[in-house]
């Protein structure tokens, strides 16, 4: 379904007065509101194609209905999100779930929705029906060179699809690892994975990036061959300047200080991209900002600081993507919540008085440093985020509008109740 | 496939001399070897019907072939395990995956294999195709009384199946909980769950037990309505004397001291049963003893001590069951490994010099207390476990025999390569 | 040092216009601002006497100077905090660190500062110079009845001191436990601890409460005899109606859902009190709200909901106390930050639209339930907290005023640089 | 006190027959027992000078009596340990706790006991009484270059002391980090630390190594500037070929796979040394092998495999040291237990059939790979460890002999009951 412009206009009109009142109060209080608004307008978060359907756990899956059945329907869903919030202007495809039949047509459809193609993602953590060799014991790490070759070829094919669509990055997430002590020769697993990655890297167009994602555990439960930022950094360093580490918020051991990792990788010029979600226990893939919003803010605080220190462009120099699962929510509502939470954290981070913060730090004034951060975090930046949406042509309250249009009901009517999006 | 008695005899004959040498050394050193051997012979660990097929994670499943397609084939598999190790003389069914079409015939088949029916397990964590109402938002905790009623009725039906087969316990594991802050009124969720359990409890035959299993997280990732031993204990206490807590080793927060929980529950007469597996990160469901064998020993140390303190019969007064998943192993081999690891831990616990241990404790002699436990743990009890198997009519080395018979190949020939056991 | 009323008046006068502007915006938007302001005025958080000095770790301690050397100086410090924020109107003493020489004089001094005496705390986790028997191997759990007797007598003496000062509760935090597997007979440790607590309970005045605090680990690193809420609940239930569980935010295993524990204990009428702090790894004792402010809000959300459900008085029916350590901050500044963070979380929890929340829950509208909570959390409630302070006679910005008065410099001048507060 | 040779001889004589019986059984079963015995004889574990006294926690310290008061007494204690087990032939000093007054005399004393000086350790995590500037806010990371300079000079002084004694390595463990979000500019903290380390590295003799130890948390509770192996690896790589990572078993986040880290660092030629201890929750500093003996074995399995792959000498090419704290045990007994647990794990790792293991791995035979490791781990190697001790001139059962000599009583008589070893 499409969002009609009159629907958007009506919605915004109804809320405009209240919005302006709140905004006025806000812009009174904050000096550089305009700068922040512009940065928010520029900041786009890619939606992964697999996040448009109901997720599941190993214990079951409870579908929600109206899920997209094709790549076109997935683009339509992201297009709808983007029309609502003007901050979801990119889609990240997953091969083989989203192989475009006609790349040109797909590009045109995307352009129609104002979407570009973000990083493409390979899949060597599942066996496909027509696949010659199994990934049961790994892919790029596999003891059998034929399996490694198959996985390498798959990645190269993913790059080809990405090139056809205008993507500029390949994300390699490997489930490779082991479930039991003894199963793996860690050294050989590392070397084989590195060699496989080198073959993939060699096939990378010169204006592409390779993102090496790491994960502490799951689906392997004893070791992961790219298990932490240190390992990913090692691979990326050995691969070359086009290789980077990708950080997924849910892929760490309990209590990890992710913001410090982010700062270190930025400093070393090896941070490539980000997968947003939230979690309490493991890779829970919950809505961004739903569990630890302060951590999300602290991460953005490091991102802003570290990118500014290198003169990087916030909007374009890192890959921003949501990677979540929606087991009990309407996926589109969940994504609207995630994007808003990310925007709020970003706006708060932009609000931090960095000069004062550095002064406090240089004076070892811990109390003041905390006050400066919390002052930004405690500020209600929702009016300014709404203003950015409004100026960009989106809705003041995307979720409210989405619901008032009864979107899900329409999607179910169009697509059926028992649809399952390709993917997990 | 069946284990022929000559195969067993040949196997044992070939290994007998070496075994006797090791055993002699052992029985020389240990005073009460006979007592331990007898206890090992008596100790049976139930095999859950769902552990006979390859497991999976939310990311994929890599089947192994030859998996049982029917309840009869599942019983045949457990029968084979039991013929090999004489320690798997019970099967635990899961409804609706294992609904017996003819209870009498099923009982006869089980008897043929020397198996009894352990606790039956209900399932309200998945929707079945023909199910009227969904468990997406919980079952016994559900806001809608009709869903609760459906879940209650299902549990009562499970009891009926269990009665027909001679089971004496119902295990209720609930995935009920919430994924996001705000989703649940904890108080109401507790009360509704309690009321639902009371209805189930009321349907319990007088010689049955109700096991209330707890789990810290997954598949709900913010809260679990029966989330820790304290909660399970509360439910079990309010339900009555037939209700008990069931401990699954993988269902705890990081670093939990499970052996202390076991001791406390035994002391309070509320420990009902055990699910064995091992894990490093969460509910990883790995082979028992494969990650933390010392923890397994320490748990058995408390079990032996606590049961003896109450005059309980090790073999019959608690429910012992494996609950694991086999993603990269032949399920039957995995189960043979698990059972052996459990027997080793049990034998080591029986070996502990309890008089000396209590003396050391009363003297605050921490060094000596540790020495006493580690002396038992460092002892190689495999000869005595093998002897118990031998006397009970099993194989000296079950795994070796299983492999030498090329069992899996035969099962694949009989059942096919692409079979999927009912279940997860 | 004292806060002069003109200093307070000057401070408030200078900030008043800006404050009124913010508040007006706020009270425009929120219907029941007055109700919340009144509740904030009533809500007092006790300051523990040991939080007034610089803390330390086992690796070292870096004193900050001007620390209180006597009980009178401690009361002066709390008095100053209370003069600044009008929310710290209680002090929690620790025996033997704070034995009053003249209870009447001490009460008068406290009254002068507007302070009452909150729960008194016993100490059996350290040996005192003149102590007959050592607590090296525990106190209330000790194998030697003479040690247990000594610890019981100490607790009874603490009650006597509390009675003399007008306290109404005893907090028993036990470091009892074990460092090594084998060291402790868990069952006996539990029974001995229970018997000891029963003796203490018997000495409790009829209008007193006994708080049984639990802690997952540290200073014992294998087991803690009161290690989780389940254990504490067991003790409190067996003791009787005057015994309650006390929750310290830092005393849990990683990832524990503390808000659910709070809800459960309130439901069972066994929640007695609260120790506020924050932490990332263990019992880090950081400033409240400095690491996980959303968790603090979620806890208050359950507190408000659970107390309202029982008709409890927020201000008086639970014990509220800060329990933190200030290794790198001025302790008084840290406490001002903690109190403000607690007030903010409380105000946000009061802001939650409970009717709408229950509706969303009963409709399984997870998205909306989250929106309702986050709407409250994202609201900038600082103006209303400041207004409550102002009306109660405190400072609009306590920390700003504290700093502008150069308080620490004055305290160092008065008390010296190398002072060490009695305590840790 | 000294161990008289007749005492040793008597002890061994009494146990010899039983030992020979066990050993014979063992050497019958194991082909290359001689090779393992020789490796055990060569393998020496350094004792840190601070491990000879009772440790403590931030909550208290319960001294045990007879603790060494001087460097000479510390060497005497290690000498006694070494005389008992012939595996503790090195001591690791901590400056400023152990500044030798006369290096030559100290070397002679050490030689008398058969001890060499292992890595020297600097201390910038505490302030010393005579110190000009405070480390409250860090040392090598400090914002003030004068503090950094002081810390650098201290490290260089430690090297000088080490040179005088014949040490060949400096271990730098930094408590530097932050307790609160905002406190630290992570980037600057890293750069300053790196620059400081470069100055220290420049002062390193050409045959020395610099060990960069990492730790996840404590005593800083928000960030540690050398917080994980990835960070340490970065520092060591930037410093140069003499810089290495040092792994302390207790310095990781929950559930970390330490053996994989070890394998990776060995592969990258950046593993320098090891601190042995055990833990359940954090840096609990418990006796090696007392909590997770299987993990200790798995680590040694990687050490043996990785060192062999590089042709390294097990005994000399890595630094082996115990780093534990003895809160409830006699420190010398604890150290005897730790050394034995380490030897057992090492012997078991030497027992692993590496050819078969690699075959199983290359065949993806997970079950067999686990069997091979567990076969080694389940083997009772104590007779062979005792034999190695015997041949090296030590006691068959060091702890038994230590106790039978009533050593602690004698030490208390010599040194007094209330002594406190310099250090923590």
Account of the protein in words:
- The structure is a homotetramer of 424-residue chains.
- In chain A, helix 5 links the parallel strand 4 (120-121) and strand 5 (169-173).
- Chain A has a single domain, classed as Divalent-metal-dependent TIM barrel enzymes (TIM Barrel, Alpha-Beta Barrel).
- In chain A, strands 4-5-7-9-10-11 form a six-stranded parallel beta sheet.
- In chain A, helix 1 crosses helix 13 and helix 9 crosses helix 10.
- Chain A contains 15 helices and eleven strands.
- The model of chain A has no long low-confidence stretch (mean pLDDT 96).
- Chain A is α/β, with parallel strands linked by helices.
- The longest helix of chain A is centred in the N-terminal third of the chain and has 25 residues, at 5-29.
- Chains A and D meet through helix 6, helix 7, helix 8, helix 9 and helix 11 of A and helix 6, helix 7, helix 8, helix 9 and helix 11 of D.
Structure summarized in a few sentences:
Chain A has 424 residues and is α/β, with parallel strands linked by helices. Chain A has helices at 5-29, 33-42, 71-85, 103-113, 145-165, 186-202, 229-239, 258-267, 293-309, 331-351, 354-362, 366-378, 382-391, 398-404, 407-415, and strands at 47-48, 90-92, 116-117, 120-121, 169-173, 177-178, 209-213, 223-224, 243-248, 271-276, 319-322.
Structural class of chain A: alpha/beta
Individual helix count of chain A? 15
Mean pLDDT of chain A: 96
Indicate the low-confidence ranges of chain A by residue numbers: none
InterPro entries (chains A, B, C, D): L-rhamnose_isomerase, Xyl_isomerase-like_sf
GO molecular function (chains A, B, C, D): isomerase activity; metal ion binding
Organism (chains A, B, C, D): Spirosoma sordidisoli
Keywords (chains A, B, C, D): Isomerase, Manganese, Metal-binding
């Amino acid at each position: 379904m499409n969002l009609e412009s009159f629907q958007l206009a009506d919605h915004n009109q109804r809320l405009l007065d209240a919005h302006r009142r709140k905004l006025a109060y806000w812009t009174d209080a904050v000096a550089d509101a305009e700068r922040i608004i512009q940065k928010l307008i520029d900041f786009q978060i890619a939606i992964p194609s697999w996040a448009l359907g109901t997720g599941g756990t190993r214990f079951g899956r409870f579908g929600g209905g109206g899920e997209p059945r094709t790549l076109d329907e997935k683009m339509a869903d992201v297009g709808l999100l983007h029309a609502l919030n003007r901050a979801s202007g990119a889609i990240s495809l997953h091969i083989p779930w989203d192989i475009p039949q006609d790349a040109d047509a797909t590009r045109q459809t995307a352009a129609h929705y104002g979407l570009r193609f973000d990083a493409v993602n390979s899949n060597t953590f599942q066996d496909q029906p027509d696949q010659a060799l199994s990934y049961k014991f790994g892919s790029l790490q596999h003891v059998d060179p034929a399996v490694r070759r198959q996985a390498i070829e798959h990645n190269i094919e993913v790059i080809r699809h990405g090139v056809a669509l205008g993507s500029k990055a390949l994300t390699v997430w490997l489930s490779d690892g082991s479930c039991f002590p003894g199963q793996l020769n860690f050294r050989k697993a590392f070397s084989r994975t590195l060699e496989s990655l080198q073959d993939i890297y060699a096939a990378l167009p010169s204006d592409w990036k390779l993102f090496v994602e790491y994960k502490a555990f799951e689906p392997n439960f004893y070791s992961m061959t790219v298990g932490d930022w240190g390992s990913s950094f090692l691979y990326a360093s050995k691969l070359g300047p086009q290789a980077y580490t990708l950080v997924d918020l849910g892929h760490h051991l309990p209590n990890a200080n992710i913001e410090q990792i982010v700062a270190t990788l930025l400093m070393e010029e090896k941070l490539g991209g980000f997968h947003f979600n939230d979690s309490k226990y493991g890779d829970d893939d919950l809505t961004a900002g739903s569990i630890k919003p302060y951590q999300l803010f602290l991460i953005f605080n490091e991102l802003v600081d570290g990118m500014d220190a290198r003169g990087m462009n916030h909007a374009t120099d890192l890959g921003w993507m949501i990677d979540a699962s929606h087991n009990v929510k309407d996926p589109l509502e969940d994504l609207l919540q995630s994007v808003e939470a990310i925007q709020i954290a970003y706006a708060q981070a932009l609000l931090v008085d960095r000069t004062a913060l550095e002064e406090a730090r240089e004076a070892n004034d811990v109390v003041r440093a905390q006050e400066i951060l919390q002052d930004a975090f405690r500020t209600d930046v929702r009016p300014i985020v709404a203003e950015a949406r409004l100026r960009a042509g989106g809705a003041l309250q995307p979720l409210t509008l989405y619901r008032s249009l009864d979107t899900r009901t329409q999607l179910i009517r169009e697509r059926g109740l028992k649809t399952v999006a390709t993917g997990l």
